[in-house]
Design goal:
alpha+beta; about 20% helix
Length: about 450
């Protein structure tokens, strides 16, 4: 009898959960370790699609195997309705590097597909010899301005398979043709813990391989070392292939990507922030795109008293204001807050705004919310994802609960020679707080 890999994974999960319940007395809901096998095999896994070049003509893919695999390749073809597309696939070599994690060695593989046609759907697979992944689809960007949609996630961090999975899958259900998914840091809780990355990949499954990932590192991607210092986990380097157009010492954490008529910029709020100021000014000054989005982990404005990042605000906010960045997408505070805090002394017409700052959370770890002047809409005890659609001079922003219920919405409209016009479309529902949402049951 042929047994599928999916059936084996399911039965393994059942066995793990049953043993937890019977032997340890710990409920499955509270169990925070991976219920998936994190050991690499000959079969390619942890496949993730990114960009390290022009999204209109290239795409990058990373994946993992065990060390039995000593060659690394990928195949790509234009996707058509007939399965015979495979006959027209071209094969290209990939780079391979040996790493160790959780007591075992594995190979990390990276390929960059180049010279692709813009606005075209492609099929690809990765592997070597007779061992290959399934075929995945993706679409290259347009060479110029065109409508696009993306989803943005705050911290995933904890209970990735058991609870964060519902958020990313709900986002995919809401926006299955999203052009990319953007993660504002703390993808996992302990950056060096391999089992957590296993959960992150299992939770997103094929989504990571078909919708390009843009990510910025959070403080939990910087685990503490034996000497007390913190450094970026090497898992970041071999999990993602991002552009190397930032400061040399911040490669693949500080970078920018031009997509259609937008420039998306990742800053690294964990590292020396002053080093990024000159680079940021250069990237914004040279920007010819209509829309500009900046993402980093630690918020300019916190959703809770006592968590403000005043040094970060002093360094970066004047630049974000001066160049009229449209959206600043952040995480870290495990709550939701959205607002535009106009710079002191800056005159704005009614209905106009400067940068719109957002703090969000997609995973189950929750903090308390403090009422702050800077945000117009806030929430606590809520898992959310955000879907942003851009079409010419209009941006539509919608924040959804993990259940798919709309919680926040607004439009930004470009105006010649003036700041963005804000159209607030916030639903007429109460602000979500601990006292009006489903709280933890009281112990008997």
């Amino acid at each position: 009898m042929r047994v599928s890999a999916g059936w084996c994974r399911m039965m393994g999960l059942v066995t793990v959960l049953a043993s937890m319940s019977l032997s340890s007395g710990v409920s499955a809901f509270d169990y925070d370790r991976a219920a998936v096998d994190s050991v690499a095999t000959v079969i390619p896994d942890r496949i993730v699609l990114t960009w390290n070049g022009d999204p209109a003509t290239s795409a990058a893919v990373t994946w993992r195997t065990n060390t039995q695999i000593v060659t690394s390749e990928a195949e790509i073809a234009k996707a058509v309705g007939s399965p015979n597309f495979r006959l027209y696939a071209t094969r290209t070599g990939a780079s391979m590097e040996r790493f160790e994690a959780a007591g075992y060695a594995f190979h990390s593989h990276t390929v960059t597909f180049e010279n692709l046609d813009p606005a075209t759907q492609y099929a690809y697979r990765v592997g070597s010899g007779e061992i290959w992944s399934e075929w995945f689809h993706f679409r290259t960007a347009h060479a110029g301005p065109a409508p696009f949609t993306f989803a943005y996630f705050g911290d995933a961090q904890n209970n990735l398979l058991s609870l964060w999975s519902r958020t990313i899958r709900a986002a995919y259900a809401e926006a299955p043709k999203a052009d990319f998914f953007l993660h504002a840091g703390d993808l996992v809780n302990v950056g060096d813990r391999d089992s957590e990355w296993s959960e992150w990949f299992e939770a997103g499954d094929f989504i990571h391989a078909t919708i390009p990932v843009i990510a910025t590192p959070g403080n939990h991607e910087y685990p503490k070392q034996k000497d007390g210092s913190r450094r970026l986990s090497n898992k970041w380097r071999y999990t993602f292939a991002f552009p190397e157009n930032g400061p040399e010492n911040l490669s693949e954490t500080v970078y920018y990507i031009d997509y259609h008529d937008a420039r998306i910029i990742s800053l690294n709020s964990n590292e020396e922030r002053g080093d990024q100021v000159d680079w940021l000014e250069d990237v914004l000054e040279s920007n010819t795109k209509t829309w500009t989005f900046v993402t980093f982990h630690h918020p300019i404005y916190s959703t809770k008293v006592g968590r403000d990042n005043t040094k970060l605000r002093a360094l970066w906010k004047p630049i974000l204001d001066e160049y009229e960045v449209d959206l600043v997408l952040q995480g870290h505070d495990h709550t939701y807050g959205r607002g535009a805090n106009v710079a002191t002394g800056r005159k704005m017409r009614d209905g106009e705004v400067g940068p719109m700052y957002v703090v969000s959370v997609s995973g189950p770890k929750m903090y308390e919310l403090t009422e702050r002047e800077w945000f117009d809409r806030g929430a606590e005890n809520s898992q959310l994802y955000q879907v942003i659609h851009v079409d010419e001079n209009k941006l539509e922003y919608q924040a959804y609960l993990a259940t798919g219920e709309l919680y926040d919405a607004f439009d930004l409209i470009k105006q010649d020679g003036r700041s963005n016009r804000l159209v607030d479309r916030t639903p007429k529902t109460p602000r979500r707080r601990d006292d009006n949402t489903l709280d933890k049951p009281k112990k008997k």
